[in-house]
Amino acid sequence: MSGRVTSVAVVGRDASLWLTATALQRALGRTGVRVQAIELDSRLSQVDVYAALPTLAALHRLLGLDEALVLKVCRGVPMVGQRFSNWAMGAAPFLLAYDDEPPSGELPFVQYWAKGVIEGLRVGLEDFSFGTACARLNAVPVPGEHGAPASASYGYHLHAPAYAELTKQLALRLGIDVTSSGMRNIDVAGDVIEGIDLADGTRVRADLYVDASGREAALIGRLASKQFESWAEWLPCDRLLIASAPRLSSLPAFSQISAFHGGWVGLYPLQDGTAVAAVYSSSAVGDGEAVELAGAISRLPISGDAVVSELAPGAQRLPWIGNCVSVGEAAIAVDPIDAVELQVTHGCISHLVSLFPATAGEFPEADAYNAAIRSFGSNLRDFQAAHYLFNRRFDELFWDRARDTPPPPGLARRASLFTARASIPLNDHETFEGQSWAALLTGCGIVPQGYDPRVDALPDQAHVEKIQQRLRDIAMLARSMPGVEQFLTLDQPSTAQAVA
To answer: pTM surpassing 0.90?
Structure first.
């Protein structure tokens, strides 16, 4: 029987490296596992921003990062959702907010709404969303009294270099061995990494290697069985431009995502500025035009140099090969839409910790990890692809091609069932739950033609009253929430012991 895994080398850069190394140290350091971080050159610029889902807060709690400190150091702004404009010619913008799921056993409210629509209700689904109501008021849905009629969560906009440095300092404080010498050679035999030679002449050997290098896939990409599966068919943007603009006079509680003829422009407010991103197809838009569009669509003066990088959405068919595990965008390279970059790292970390090998050598856990990450990634891909494939922009080559592309089977199945009965079939390892899927599909113009028959157990008058009461509850509750500016100045827990 092989011995236990006692050494882990995490190779990577920026937040993915530090979150992974810190999580492994927190989870396994007391068991005798030694975690070493090999830092590669940063790929971040001073204009980069992380837009993150509410689940990041749970990871922060596990790692010992205080929210007040994160917001202060990273000039962070709470994000209640994302607002999508111009994805359908003539249609109003729609919001994807982060409402919490109803208690187990209770029918989703979308079922009651679907019956109402069939019977003549003309109020959109998002008007019944607590998160959307807060976003419209630039309010933050902070936890309240138990038994509130609705609840929602918020994510973050964070200055990416500052966040990477904050998580690095946490790793150093935890005693993780860090080297920034750089790699000179990766010694590979088939599907096994035998060692890493650093630029300073030292050699690193570990029982397990973790690739947190991002899209470069510096380790997993060297192995014989590597195979990258492109998702360009469904996620057609291949260029990302990031620039900076002045601070917005009033901080919104959401990202603004605006489509144009060859892609989309995103606005991500920070406390001291605004990150502006243009995500586009190089076959439709040149880099120079993208800069002009970013300024014109955002209606903000672009300052400093814009940074352009390539996008290649897709995933490793085998994110764990031999003694190498890939995490974050080394495993799943996502489209920038829907604020899932850090979520990919978080999801991979969670699965790696739960499947951390019992012994060194054969690693039977790899099969389970690969299956879980494939499911996790394909669920994310389908959610992101819906924005493109279900667009309603006509007579524009980029968008017409996207709309004519057959969706992945899983996305087609969800759209079909939602159309038939307002139901969302969920898979294992989902990031977005049923309410988010319903908001996305209705935002894309897909209206249910039926509903769950159990809704009819509620008498007609009670059904009307339920609809009306939901609207009243949402409006009243949202008005009681603090605005973004107020939230950022509220008395929050002391940061004296913020990094535990």
So the answer is: yes
